[in-house]
Specification:
2 domains; 308 residues; two-stranded antiparallel sheet; single chain; Rossmann fold; alpha/beta; 9-stranded mixed sheet
Length: 308
């Protein structure tokens, strides 16, 4: 065997070894290239502790977790809070996006004092996803770019903020953190293999404005939950959908540090990322009408007692 053949075999062995470490059976490109993911965590409204940078400017827990998952599973992660990234020369080079953000990201003043995304930047993001790039939203990614109208009512599809229409659902409010069960309605979703009963302590989001084409993965079981906002039929908690040519995955999990550190959440996140980047395939047949047929029935807003 000559030197060239030896190097070729060594290269193939390295690729095979790398592939064995990659999730859900996908194979890394032979040229060693990696998908590039932008993780964006600007907080224009409430800043969650999991996305707060360290005092010396180090990555937040959520950013470090996704960065580490990228190193483990074969994709490159760039973490950013400066909205200028969406109009930069670097932006077209990203294959997908991870958002844990809050508020109107185009507003100058923000709780974390970072530069805003411009209106052009927002359009660039939505056009990129529609054009075929992947999008993963976690937790407060649904508390971003709210639609106009009553917060406690659903809005017609043509009145939704374009970001919300892309995401497939919108945050209303949350109650006290509590343990609650999640029903797995798609046990074949990448990252859920072998997962059975789920009873998780989390800050649960009440959601609305669900897209009619959602493929629901996890359902929020509301029967025994405490809080007026949860007195409603079960509704989607984690889902996937196509946005034109793009792949969108969202989970409302992701408030608590222990959730981010859990193997279950990290596997679910990698599953969503792998699918959104096109590294693995999954059945995303719309099922919202079947598994959560009353998802858009919201609690009646309670009237304040009359003043005496």
């Amino acid at each position: 065997m000559n030197r060239r053949q030896l190097l070729q075999r060594a290269g193939l062995a390295a690729v095979a070894l790398g592939a064995s470490r990659l999730p859900f059976g996908w194979t890394a490109p032979a040229d060693g290239s990696k998908k590039r993911v932008l993780m964006y965590t600007r907080s224009q409204a409430f800043e969650h502790s999991v996305v707060k940078r360290t005092k010396d400017g180090g990555l937040s827990l959520a950013e470090q977790t996704v960065t580490d998952l990228g190193a483990k599973h074969g994709f490159e992660v760039v973490c950013e809070k400066d909205g200028a990234i969406f109009t930069s020369k670097e932006f077209p080079k990203f294959d997908g996006f991870v958002f844990e953000t809050t508020g109107d990201l185009t507003v100058e003043k923000g709780t974390d004092s970072t530069p805003p995304m411009s209106a052009e930047g927002k359009k660039n993001l939505l056009d990129a996803v529609a054009g075929g790039k992947g999008f993963v939203g976690s937790h407060c990614g649904s508390d971003t770019f709210h639609s106009k109208g009553d917060r406690n009512q659903t809005q017609p599809h043509d009145q939704l903020d374009p970001y919300i229409a892309m995401l497939g659902g919108e945050f209303i409010i949350h109650g006290a953190q509590q343990k609650a069960p999640l029903e797995i309605v798609d046990p074949n979703w990448p990252g859920l293999k072998g997962v059975k009963d789920l009873d998780i302590n989390e800050e649960w989001y009440a959601l609305k404005n669900f897209a009619p084409d959602l493929h629901v993965i996890l359902v929020m079981e509301t029967k025994d939950m405490k809080g007026d906002m949860y007195q409603r039929p079960p509704y989607p908690e984690t889902w996937a959908r196509k946005h034109e040519k793009g792949r969108v995955f969202f989970t409302s999990l992701g408030h608590r540090e222990d959730v981010w550190q859990s193997e279950f959440f990290q596997n679910l996140l990698v599953g969503g990322l792998s699918w959104s980047l096109g590294n693995v395939e999954a059945d995303i047949t719309p099922n919202i009408d079947k598994v959560t047929p009353k998802a858009n029935e919201l609690p009646l807003k309670k009237e304040a007692p009359p003043k005496k």
